[in-house]
């Protein structure tokens, strides 16, 4: 849309960026840094999906597949060649290459057909990839996935900086070790990919993509080859998703269908883009952050609430942590009801008035 | 006489058993404004769609300066200088008026594929878009979304998009349809300006007879998909055949 993001959105995005930048210094437990890394990766993944669904109006269910290609690329290379930067690079490259080939094939063969058929084709392709990953267990580890070692720099025992006594130095009480390096690898890679996408949507080609979403036939009539632009953006989104997958694989040191290919991830992506707001890169930031936080902390929050209310009748039962999915569902319904265009879209529309 | 810039040879399209445009052969020359008339369902808009590429011909050919466009997609025809404005307003509703026009400027500037450079920084494109804003008197609404414009302004934007494409062939499909009396003259004035440029070819579908009289160098009549008459305005308008078509044979006989 033409509207500029409102002040609240700008502040929220800025706050999230600052929080992610300083996260290891703010929260030091293992779980919370896991959350931060997941937020970083999912912001990129959701933003790349927004290039398709929000900017160009392409509905694809294969996005998680491209994420998986990148994940498995790096994972298999690290597994077979041992830890190091070469396997990370080669694996990422292989993932990108495979993603590109499949994206071009899907794009050229089927972006001409109606949106619903295209969506079905991507669904079928992604299902095939999921089945292949679990069947080719020699390569992919099947349902169990693969566990491997990350490059040495990211080992928790790695000392980034030594103090006078020859031990690992601390900054604001945080040890400057390999784990910290791994987080900043995730953070900076994600930031870079996100900035590249921001530049893309702000460039002339970004306007063309919006024009295709708004009125495909007229875009063609004034001289834009719609199929070419659609295939192009489908490829770009696939490459970015694939790279995000590689980064996540290096971080997790484990890749399996659950973390890289399952349709649960696809549903997460869809929810994040809808909740955040389509057609705004900022929506991806807000949607991914909210949903990941909810997935990790809603249970804890409910546990605490149930305990606090333990004297009362019924309420602790309703708030029992076992029912967290029910509450997550209710939160989604409320969000979609009160923010029909997503949080960013709805707030921007209100701000414009 | 100058050589024709646009030629249709036996142009035909069949939808099942229905022949919507039947073997229409016609040549259009630079500096000439041709009005296409005919009753509803005569095939005027279909004929336009065949020339600008929204529909592919069943048989026959479309030639622009000797190049065969018949198999080309609409975008390729646009790059060959065939520009088209639509009868039903056909804009980019969520984008601003300026963005709408800039897209049309950008399409034939070769900047469509420029990556990673802020669109707003392409000053040349914006400056050019602004000249078309001014020409169509849309400057005051430049930053409104196209969907928020009044019907009259939307029709003007439709014309502005066509002008911004800077084609050799201008095709207008009832440009003043549904416009109020105070808006219509602006659009007609723009068409008259284009007509003064002797390198441009203009095709115009129009019903309003005063408009036809004011602008036409030549009139062709389509009826049931066939080319019925072709000639100078007074000649065609006074011919018996046109009266038959418009008023029905019974009345004329």
UniProtKB/TrEMBL annotation, chain A:
<feature type="transmembrane region" description="Helical">
    <location>
        <begin position="222"/>
        <end position="249"/>
    </location>
</feature>
<feature type="transmembrane region" description="Helical">
    <location>
        <begin position="33"/>
        <end position="52"/>
    </location>
</feature>
<feature type="transmembrane region" description="Helical">
    <location>
        <begin position="7"/>
        <end position="27"/>
    </location>
</feature>
<dbReference type="GO" id="GO:0015658">
    <property type="term" value="F:branched-chain amino acid transmembrane transporter activity"/>
</dbReference>
<protein>
    <submittedName>
        <fullName>Amino acid/amide ABC transporter membrane protein 2, HAAT family</fullName>
    </submittedName>
</protein>
<dbReference type="GO" id="GO:0005886">
    <property type="term" value="C:plasma membrane"/>
</dbReference>
<dbReference type="InterPro" id="IPR001851">
    <property type="entry name" value="ABC_transp_permease"/>
</dbReference>
<keyword id="KW-0812">Transmembrane</keyword>
<feature type="transmembrane region" description="Helical">
    <location>
        <begin position="84"/>
        <end position="109"/>
    </location>
</feature>
<dbReference type="Pfam" id="PF02653">
    <property type="entry name" value="BPD_transp_2"/>
</dbReference>
<feature type="transmembrane region" description="Helical">
    <location>
        <begin position="181"/>
        <end position="201"/>
    </location>
</feature>
<dbReference type="InterPro" id="IPR043428">
    <property type="entry name" value="LivM-like"/>
</dbReference>
<feature type="transmembrane region" description="Helical">
    <location>
        <begin position="116"/>
        <end position="136"/>
    </location>
</feature>
<feature type="transmembrane region" description="Helical">
    <location>
        <begin position="269"/>
        <end position="294"/>
    </location>
</feature>
<keyword id="KW-1003">Cell membrane</keyword>
<feature type="transmembrane region" description="Helical">
    <location>
        <begin position="325"/>
        <end position="344"/>
    </location>
</feature>
<keyword id="KW-1133">Transmembrane helix</keyword>
<keyword id="KW-0472">Membrane</keyword>
UniProtKB/TrEMBL annotation, chain B:
<keyword id="KW-0547">Nucleotide-binding</keyword>
<dbReference type="GO" id="GO:0005886">
    <property type="term" value="C:plasma membrane"/>
</dbReference>
<dbReference type="GO" id="GO:0005524">
    <property type="term" value="F:ATP binding"/>
</dbReference>
<feature type="domain" description="ABC transporter">
    <location>
        <begin position="6"/>
        <end position="249"/>
    </location>
</feature>
<dbReference type="InterPro" id="IPR017871">
    <property type="entry name" value="ABC_transporter-like_CS"/>
</dbReference>
<keyword id="KW-0813">Transport</keyword>
<dbReference type="InterPro" id="IPR003593">
    <property type="entry name" value="AAA+_ATPase"/>
</dbReference>
<dbReference type="InterPro" id="IPR027417">
    <property type="entry name" value="P-loop_NTPase"/>
</dbReference>
<dbReference type="InterPro" id="IPR003439">
    <property type="entry name" value="ABC_transporter-like_ATP-bd"/>
</dbReference>
<protein>
    <submittedName>
        <fullName>ABC transporter ATP-binding protein</fullName>
    </submittedName>
</protein>
<dbReference type="GO" id="GO:0016887">
    <property type="term" value="F:ATP hydrolysis activity"/>
</dbReference>
<dbReference type="InterPro" id="IPR051120">
    <property type="entry name" value="ABC_AA/LPS_Transport"/>
</dbReference>
<keyword id="KW-0067">ATP-binding</keyword>
<dbReference type="Pfam" id="PF00005">
    <property type="entry name" value="ABC_tran"/>
</dbReference>
């Amino acid at each position: 849309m033409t509207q500029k993001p409102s002040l609240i959105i700008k502040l929220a995005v800025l706050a999230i960026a600052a929080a992610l930048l300083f996260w290891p210094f703010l929260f030091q437990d293992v779980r919370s840094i896991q959350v931060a890394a997941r937020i970083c990766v999912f912001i990129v993944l959701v933003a790349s999906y927004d290039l398709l669904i929000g900017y160009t109006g392409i509905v694809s269910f294969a996005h998680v597949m491209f994420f998986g290609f990148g994940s498995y690329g790096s994972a298999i290379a690290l597994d077979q060649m041992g830890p190091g930067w070469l396997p990370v690079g080669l694996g990422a490259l292989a993932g990108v290459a495979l993603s590109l080939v499949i994206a071009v094939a899907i794009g050229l063969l089927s972006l001409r057909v109606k949106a619903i058929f295209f969506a079905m084709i991507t669904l079928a392709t992604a299902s095939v990839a999921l089945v292949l990953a679990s069947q080719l267990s020699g390569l992919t580890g099947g349902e169990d996935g693969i566990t491997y070692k990350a490059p040495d720099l990211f080992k928790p025992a790695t000392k980034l900086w030594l103090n006078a006594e020859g031990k690992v130095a601390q900054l604001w009480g945080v040890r400057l070790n390999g784990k910290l390096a791994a987080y900043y690898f995730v953070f900076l890679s994600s930031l870079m990919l996100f900035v590249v996408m921001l530049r893309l949507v702000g460039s002339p080609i970004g306007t063309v993509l919006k024009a295709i979403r708004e009125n495909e036939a007229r875009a063609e009539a004034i001289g834009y080859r719609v199929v070419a632009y659609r295939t192009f953006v489908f490829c770009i989104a696939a490459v970015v998703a694939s790279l995000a997958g590689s980064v996540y694989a290096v971080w997790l040191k484990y890749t399996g269908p659950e973390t890289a290919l399952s349709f649960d991830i696809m549903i997460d992506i869809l929810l994040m883009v809808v909740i955040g707001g389509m057609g705004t890169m900022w929506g991806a930031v807000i949607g991914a952050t909210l949903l990941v936080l909810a997935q990790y902390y809603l249970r804890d929050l409910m546990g605490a609430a149930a305990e606090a209310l333990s004297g009362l009748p019924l309420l602790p039962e309703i708030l029992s942590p076992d029912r967290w999915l029910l509450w997550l569902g209710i939160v989604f319904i409320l969000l979609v009801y009160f923010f029909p265009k997503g949080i960013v879209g709805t707030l921007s529309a209100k701000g414009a008035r | 006489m100058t050589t024709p810039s646009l030629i249709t040879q036996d142009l035909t399209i069949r939808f099942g058993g229905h022949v919507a445009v039947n073997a229409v052969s016609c040549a259009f020359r630079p500096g000439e404004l041709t009005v296409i008339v005919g009753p509803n369902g005569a095939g005027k808009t279909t004929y336009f769609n065949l020339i600008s590429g929204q529909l592919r011909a069943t048989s026959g050919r479309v030639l622009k300066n000797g190049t065969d466009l018949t198999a080309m997609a609409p975008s390729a025809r646009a790059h060959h200088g065939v520009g088209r404005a639509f009868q039903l307003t056909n804009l980019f509703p969520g984008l601003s008026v300026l963005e709408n026009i800039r897209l049309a400027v950008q399409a034939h500037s070769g900047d469509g594929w420029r990556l990673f450079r802020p669109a707003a920084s392409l000053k040349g494109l914006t400056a050019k878009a602004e000249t078309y804003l001014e020409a169509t008197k849309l400057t005051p609404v430049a930053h409104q979304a196209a969907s928020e414009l009044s019907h009259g302004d939307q029709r003007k934007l439709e014309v502005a998009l066509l002008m911004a494409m800077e084609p050799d062939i201008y095709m207008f499909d009832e440009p003043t349809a549904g416009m109020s009396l105070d808006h219509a003259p602006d659009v007609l004035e723009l068409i008259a300006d284009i007509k003064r440029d002797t390198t441009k070819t203009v095709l115009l579908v129009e019903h309003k007879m005063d408009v036809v009289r004011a602008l036409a160098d030549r009139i062709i009549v389509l009826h049931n998909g066939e080319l019925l008459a072709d000639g100078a305005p007074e000649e065609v308008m006074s011919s018996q055949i046109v009266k038959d078509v418009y008023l029905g044979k019974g009345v004329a006989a």
